[in-house]
Structures are given as C-alpha cells and as structure tokens.
Amino acid sequence: MTAPARLDDLERLLGDPADDGNPIGNTAVLAADERDEMFAAGERVLDEYCLNAEFVPRRYGGRLAGADDLIQVLRTVFRRDPALGLGYGVSSFISSVNVWASGSPEQARWVAGTLLSNQKIASAYHELAHGNDFSRAEFAARPQAQGGWRLTGRKEVVTNVKRARGLVLLARTDERAGSRSHSQILVDKQAVPARAIRDLTRYPSVGMRGVQLGGIEFTDCPVGDEAVVGRPGQGIETALRSFQLTRTAIPTMLAGVLDSGLRLTLDFAAGRRLYGRSVADQPEVRRLLVDAYLDLLICDSLGLVVSRALHLLPGQTSMYASAVKYLVAKRLMDAMHQLSLVLGAHFYLREGRYGIFQKLLRDLAPAGFGHAARVACLGTMLPQVPLMARRGWVNPDPAGPDLFRIGEELPELPFDRLRVSAGGLDGLVGSLTAAADQIVGDSPEQRRLRLLAGQFRAELGDLAEAGAALHPGDLGVDARVEVLGLPARYATVLAASACLNVWLVRGDGPAWVVAALDRLARSIGRPGADRGDRYREPLYQELAARHADRRSFDLSRRVLPG
Amino acid sequence: MTREPTKTGNHPRKETDMASNAEGPADLRAWLTGCVAQYLRRPETEIDPTVRLADYGLDSVYALALCGDIETHLDMRLSETLVWDYPTVDELAAHLEELVAAQQPAGAR
C-alpha cells in the first residue's frame, strides 16, 4: 500500500482531533495526560493499525520502505499526541534500527515478529550519570568461560522499559577505554531468569507525562552469545550509523506538533476580536504566524531531504542527521513558543478548546534533549568540519534530483552503507551551487533568489576558511562556543539547499522559498533579500487558505479529517 | 571499505604539500605522535605510543578527525573507524605502514 493510502487509513481511524465527540480527540488526549497515563484508546487504535509495522523493513514483513513515507505516517500521530508518538511508537523504532543495521537475520526476524504482534522493544542506553556520553556507559556484559555473557548494571529513564517485551541494551563488553568496548545486547525479557532483573520506580516528567519512563536493574543475568548485536565491540559504530535514521526521522515527525500549533493559533486568531478587530488582522500576529509557517516548511524540507539522503547518499549522512536534530528541534520549539504569545493566557489553560496547546508545547521539549541533545549533535559534527572544509565545501559534486523528489519511490534503506563519517563528501552542499546556477531570468523573485543563494555560498566559503584554520585541539567536548557555531551555521546552509532544491523540483510559487531563504540568511547574520518582507502577506493568505480548506501546513498539503 | 560511488569523480586533491608516502616507519610514527600531541595540546614528549588514545581523552568522534588528517597526510582513503581498531600510536603506525607498502607499485620498492 502506498504511503498516501496508509495515511488516509490512519487519519480516518484517528478522526478529527478537535471534535469533542471523538474518543481519540483532544479532550480524551488531555484527560489521559492529566492522569499521567498513556492514552489507552489511542493505543488500541494504533494496535488496530499495527503502527509498529511502519518501523519494520519490508524484507521482514513490515511496511518500512522510504524514510520520508515513515515520517509522514508518524506525523499523523505526533500531530495529535506526541506522547503516543513516542510512548507507543518511536521508542521501538529507536531500538529496532540497531538490529536492522547490525543484527543477525535471526535477531531481525525476532524483532520484526515482536513488533508486528504489537509488542514493544525498549532502547535501554541511558544511565543518569552519563547522559549523552554513552561511551562511558557502565552497564556491563561480562563474557563467560563456558560461552555467553552475564549482564550487571542499571539503565535509567528509559521509555517503556517495564512493559516492553524486548530490550536493546548498550553494554560495556570490554573494560578498556575506547570505541570498541561496547555492544548492543538484545534481550527477550521473558527468556531471562526473573530473579536477575528488577524494575526501578517510574520517573515523573514535565511533558510526555503519560510516557512510561522507567528503569531496570540487572544482576548477573545470563544471556547467550546470540544476544550480542553484531560483533562484540561494534556497539558505538552501530549506534552512530543506525541512529542517523532516528535522529533525522523523529524531529521531522515532530513537525506535526507545529502543524497542530499553527492550526490552533489560527483558530484562535480568526475567532477572537480584541480592540474592535480580529486578532488575525493585527500585523504582529500575522508576522508571528508567517514565521512559524516558514519554520515548518524549512524543517520539513531539510528533514525530508535528509531522510531521502539516507537511501540515496548513505555514506554522507552522518553530518546531515545531526544537523536535522540540531536545527529542526530548535526551530520547532522556538516557533511553538512564538505561537504561544499569540494565544496569550489561553495557552496557559489546561482545558477547553486550546488546552491541548500547552500539552503540545511541553511534549515537544524532549526534541531538544531526547535521544541526543542538540549541543551534543554539534559536538558530533565538529570533528568532521576540518575535512569538510578541505574537501566537501570546495566545489563538491551535486546530488541527483531524486534527493529532492519527496515521496517518490526510493531504494531500500541501505543500513549496511551508513557510515560514521562522511569522509569529506557533501552532495547536499553541492546541490546548493547547482541550484543557484539554475535560477536564470530577471523577475524580482529570480533576482532575489540569486542574491540569497549567493549569501549562502559566501557563508560556505567563510565556513571552509574557518574550518580549515581550526586547531585540532578545538574539536573536542571543550570546544569554544564560537567553534561550535560552525556546525550550527553549516546546518543552516544545508537547510537553505534543501528548501531551494525542493522548491525547484516542485515548481511551486516562489513566495515561500524566497521568504524561507531570507529567514535562514538573517538567522546567520547575512543581509537577506532586499524587501524580502513583501512575500509575507501572500504567505499569510496562503496559510489562511490552507486553514480554511483544512489542509496540513507542511509540504504535503494533505487534506485533514474534520 | 565501500564509499559513496561518485558520478564524476570526487577524488580529493592533494591537500597538503607534505603528502608523501615515501617516508619511512619512523617518520610516520613521529608524525602521528605530533598529530596526537596537537589534538591534546600537550608536548610530544608526553605522548606514549603504547597508550590507548582513548585513555588520553581522544574519544570516538574525535578519532574520526584524526583519521581525516591521516588521509590527507598520506593521500589515501582509509576506513573511518581505523583509529578505533588500532587504538595506540604504535598500532596505528604499524598498520598504516602495511597499507602504504601494499599501495606502492612493485617497481617502486
């Protein structure tokens, strides 16, 4: 079944969130949140749809083909209840990618069977003492003389650890420091001695309140050699490779939160009159709405392009995935915060028509630190900057146009070809230059786009110069703030390339792309387009029209139920 | 190892005038030691070639940058996890020696 057909099915099952009579609607979602519970009615619907099949590659009987389609389907869930998206869905996604990337066929079949029977697999990496620094993990798997391993240690603040059937644990398998000292261990909780594992108490949280964040302690728990995912010692490599998919896909799914935030704010602004006029007619309100709309299109363009790059340029995505996590998470959170200013006191209420907004805002916050913190992503990118500066940012080859044809058929995800380093190759940056050369003609839009593309090329030149001049001692975790700014600025250049190229293959009107590039350019201190603000009013009209037509605000422009 | 196939040949240029694979084992070891010392901002004399780089605080992603420097220095494409698999200066130098020797055309030896 094609993604749009699957999406329509899921939308129908979930119904109109704003309808008070909908048992899967906002009112019911909020009530579950107030009780700190997972949304049971929502979970039943997702069981019926077998959402887990979206995470399982087709070769193992699931529906996972294109990463861009996966994102669209999950966005449907995140638009309504991010706690359901994470707590029902993507926590199993995160653990499963380790197995698709490095597991044996037997392990992959077991994970597929577990997920396809609506059971969960938790990703147990986190230890409170070590945060994102998972190479310091202390949870240990010790080899036994007679074969097999014994597991000892704790994993803390792990989604679904208690109710999951399976666990993917990151364990130290070598006492020595280094990058070959850890391994993923796949455990069927029903197959290990009950006395060897103990649930820790649940961690209450500010957002995602229904999500069951728990902990687990293992004491001398025996597992067989077949529990190790890949070769012993391959764990850091498996994580850095396979998490490129999740670090790209999850923030891009979360764009559904901003889609809903925009809809709620437009509902509010259109319906409310203050000082004798509609709130929606206030110029400041329109400015905030258009900015949020542009941020959604920017996030969607970058996230979907990188999700396609995982299929088409798998050796190059190690920097891109971290750039998505960094940039998309920030823009989504900032945009939601700006929208909350329009709602004013109404965003602060936990019930009523707009009560869902504060939940969306709280649930979005983990985008900034969950799975990998934004600053940790910059730290991961930084060591590749010098090589990029010497190779990838100087006349790189462009990627083929398929990279930008969102939703078009893709080859199977080549997990085995994802690399921990891009080796100085950068097709997305190459496509920025190639796209700029395609914009010929003398309309005001074409002139502005050329001007803006020139600013990003200049930015790239500056990045190459600064990157080549970096001292090796600048690249570690104690990197100076301005040095960490280099990968942050690079992420903005990638976003510009994604927007420009997506626009070129879509043949849309130019308003959004001029305004998006203008916004991105100004965010890195470039001048932007001369009179770039003239595109704002047409964009507001486009936004209002989509709102009236009940269409999504992202690139897909899908018709929504209700 | 496999790399992205490139359509029009995106081979790195010679990026450094130091690029030379004619140097001997001792040179390579000394160059590596200097490189690691620079990363750690410590004098070369403090770098013990038998100590694991991770013990000096050179973590996994940091090691990728070192790998890029070695590629540039030797003008060779290497496995990006090289420094993880040969975690001391001595092991790295010995392995790189073998790779360099294997790359020399027979007549040049």
UniProtKB/TrEMBL annotation, chain A:
GO cellular component annotations of the record: plasma membrane
Lipid metabolism in keyword set: no
Record key words, sorted: FAD, Flavoprotein, Oxidoreductase
Domain Acyl-CoA dehydrogenase/oxidase C-terminal residues, every copy: 233-364
Cofactor requirements of the protein: FAD
GO MF, one annotated term: acyl-CoA dehydrogenase activity
Domain Acyl-CoA oxidase/dehydrogenase middle residue range list: 126-221
UniProt xrefs under InterPro entries: Acyl-CoA_Oxase/DH_mid-dom (IPR006091), Acyl-CoA_Oxase/DH_mid-dom_sf (IPR046373), AcylCo_DH-like_C (IPR036250), AcylCo_DH/oxidase_C (IPR009075), AcylCoA_DH/ox_N_sf (IPR037069), AcylCoA_DH/oxidase_NM_dom_sf (IPR009100)
Alphabetical list of Gene3D superfamilies matching this protein: Acyl-CoA dehydrogenase/oxidase, N-terminal domain, Butyryl-CoA Dehydrogenase, subunit A, domain 2, Butyryl-CoA Dehydrogenase, subunit A, domain 3
Pfam families (UniProt xref): Acyl-CoA_dh_1, Acyl-CoA_dh_M
CDD domains hit by this protein: ACAD
Domain of life: Bacteria
Family: Belongs to the acyl-CoA dehydrogenase family.
Protein name listed in UniProt: Acyl-CoA dehydrogenase
TrEMBL record, chain B:
Biased composition (Basic and acidic residues): 1-17
Keyword Nucleotidyltransferase in record: no
Any Pfam family: PP-binding
TM region(s), chain numbering: none
Keyword entries, A-Z: Phosphopantetheine, Phosphoprotein
Disordered: annotated segments: 1-25
InterPro entries: ACP-like_sf, PKS_PP-bd, PP-bd_ACP
Domain Carrier: 26-100
Molecular functions (GO terms): phosphopantetheine binding
Protein name (Swiss-Prot/TrEMBL): Acyl carrier protein
Natural source organism: Micromonospora phaseoli
